[in-house]
Amino acid sequence: MAPATRPRDLYAELVRTGPGAALARKAGLPRPALLRRFEAGAPLLVGPALVLTVGSGASAFRTREAGGALASLLTRAGADVQLELAEQGQRLGAVVVDATGATDVGDLAALGLALGPAVRRLAPSSRVILVGRTPGDDDVEAAAVQQGLEGITRTVGKELRAGATANLLRLSSGAGAAELAGPLAFVASPRSAFVDGQVIEVARSAHDDDARDALSRSERPLEGAVAVVTGAARGIGRATAQVLARQGAHVVVVDVPAASGDLARTANGVRGEALALDVTAGDAPARLAEHLGRRLGERRLVVVHNAGITRDRLLVNLDAARWESVLAVNLAAPLRLTEALVEADLLGGGARVVGVSSTSGLAGNRGQANYAASKAGVAGMVRALAPRLAELGGTANAVAPGFIETEMTAKIPPVLRQLGRRTASLQQGGLPVDVAETVAWLAEPASVGVTGQVVRVCGQALVGA
Ligand SMILES: NC(=O)c1ccc[n+]([C@@H]2O[C@H](COP(=O)([O-])OP(=O)(O)OC[C@H]3O[C@@H](n4cnc5c(N)ncnc54)[C@H](O)[C@@H]3O)[C@@H](O)[C@H]2O)c1
Question: What's the family (predicted)?
Answer without folding.
Answer: Belongs to the short-chain dehydrogenases/reductases (SDR) family.
